[in-house]
């Protein structure tokens, strides 16, 4: 007889969240000791199976089943009823994680979706188990949930996969340094004694970041009081907008303002762009006014989330590099690989 989902675990179920930390925590930093896992660059996804039918939902508790038919089919084929999983939907393309391919699924028509699924199929990396055999195990420590998850996943076949995990901080550090080449963003760190408290930020995450030079071609705000830098890089022989910085403090804004000058020739950027062109996750899609400036090199810190044409998250401004020629700033090789 098929097991039913336990009370309180009918989808969508709130998923545990993670807070950003500046460095990899020590092995004993979290209750029970740390378990280190890759931070996948994908869509957070809950999966449940009840009476043989699978449900999929996002961190925002949005129904995603129709966008991932191959994962629905795999869940219904390989998972017993009464199971609830937490994990990440990912797509691999040319040896790297392809976040843009995931996003295209959300905007394509039903007729085109089948083609996308065939060309770039999704996978699921499971990293937690909330229910098994119709039993709610959210109150079981992570060490116990992980043991049950590994047993459940022993016979899985792609596209269902068990996300790797280690208690070895040295190995986790190697993952942190080496895995960004495949598009993995960093690490998620969990305490092995922690229970599953959906909706709460009880896990930690640390993102791998690169320091690089970009061209400041405009600012938000005025030249005397800039509030953010609009960054550009040259590819296809054009200086293209690739993102923006996080909000500058008043002190940093004044320092940057010392180097800002009006453009001395025709500027390649418009005076106004959409909010989405600077921040693809912003809910505000209204226009943003740019204050164009004579191109200036600035040094920034960026995480590895690169779409192929822009940074997906805000850059951290580090310093102005007035001694460098903007014409000499090339697209970094690490970003070329992601195009």
Fold and architecture overview:
- This protein has helices spanning 69-78, 99-107, 110-119, 142-153, 169-178, 250-257, 275-278, 333-336, and strands at 17-20, 34-39, 43-50, 53-57, 83-93, 96-97, 122-132, 135-136, 160-162, 186-191, 201-207, 209-221, 226-235, 238-244, 272-274, 287-289, 291-303, 316-320.
- The protein is α+β, with helices and mostly antiparallel strands.
- The protein folds into two domains: 17-207, DNA ligase/mRNA capping enzyme (D-amino Acid Aminotransferase, Chain A, domain 1, 2-Layer Sandwich); 209-336, Beta Barrel (OB fold (Dihydrolipoamide Acetyltransferase, E2P)), CATH 2.40.50.
- Strands 3, 4, 5, 6, 7, 8 and 9 form a seven-stranded mixed β-sheet that branches. A five-stranded antiparallel β-sheet has the order 14-13-12-17-18.
Fraction in beta strands:
35-45%
The tally of structural domains comes to 2
Number of DSSP helical runs: 8
CATH level-3 fold name of the largest domain: D-amino Acid Aminotransferase, Chain A, domain 1
Order of helices and strands: EEEEHEEHHEEHEHEEEEEHEHEEEH
Helix content: 10-25%
Enumerate the spans where pLDDT stays under 50 for 5 or more consecutive residues.
Answer: none
CATH architectural arrangement of the largest domain: 2-Layer Sandwich
Could you state the CATH homologous superfamily of the largest domain? DNA ligase/mRNA capping enzyme
* Structural class designation: alpha+beta
The shape is elongated
Mean pLDDT: 93
Largest sheet: 7 strands, mixed
Quickly name the level 1 CATH class of the largest domain: Alpha Beta
Q: State Rg.
A: 22 Å
Amino- and carboxy-terminal Cα gap: 50 Å
* Tally of DSSP β-strands: 18
């Amino acid at each position: 007889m098929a097991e039913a989902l336990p009370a309180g675990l009918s989808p969508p179920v709130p998923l545990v969240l993670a807070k950003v930390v500046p460095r990899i925590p020590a092995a004993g930093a979290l209750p029970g000791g740390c378990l280190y896992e890759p931070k996948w660059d994908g869509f957070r996804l809950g999966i449940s199976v009840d009476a043989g039918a699978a449900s999929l939902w996002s961190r925002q508790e949005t129904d995603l089943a129709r966008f991932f038919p191959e994962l629905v089919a795999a869940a219904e084929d390989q998972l017993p009823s009464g199971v609830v999983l937490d994990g990440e939907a990912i797509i691999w393309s040319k040896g790297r994680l392809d976040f843009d391919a995931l996003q295209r699924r959300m905007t394509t028509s039903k007729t085109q979706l089948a083609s996308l699924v065939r060309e770039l199929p999704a996978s699921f990396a499971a990293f937690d188990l909330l229910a098994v055999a119709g039993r709610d195990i959210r109150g079981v420590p992570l060490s116990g949930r992980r043991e049950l998850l590994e047993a459940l996943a022993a016979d899985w076949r792609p596209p269902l996969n068990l996300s790797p995990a280690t208690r070895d901080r040295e190995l986790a550090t190697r993952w942190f340094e080496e895995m960004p080449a495949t598009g993995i963003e960093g690490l998620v760190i969990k305490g092995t004694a922690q229970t599953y408290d959906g909706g709460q930020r009880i896990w930690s995450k640390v993102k791998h970041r690169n320091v690089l030079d970009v061209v400041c071609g405009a600012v938000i705000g005025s030249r005397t009081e800039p509030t953010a830098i609009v960054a550009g890089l040259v590819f296809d022989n054009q200086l293209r907008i690739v993102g923006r910085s996080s909000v500058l403090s008043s002190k940093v804004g004044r320092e940057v303002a010392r180097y800002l000058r009006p453009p001395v020739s025709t500027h390649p950027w418009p005076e106004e762009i959409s909010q989405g062109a600077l921040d693809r996750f912003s809910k505000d899609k209204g226009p943003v006014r740019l204050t164009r400036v004579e191109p200036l090199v600035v040094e920034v810190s960026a995480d590895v989330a690169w779409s192929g044409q822009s940074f997906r998250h805000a850059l951290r401004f580090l310093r102005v590099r007035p001694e460098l020629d903007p014409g000499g700033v090339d697209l970094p090789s690490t970003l070329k690989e992601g195009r």
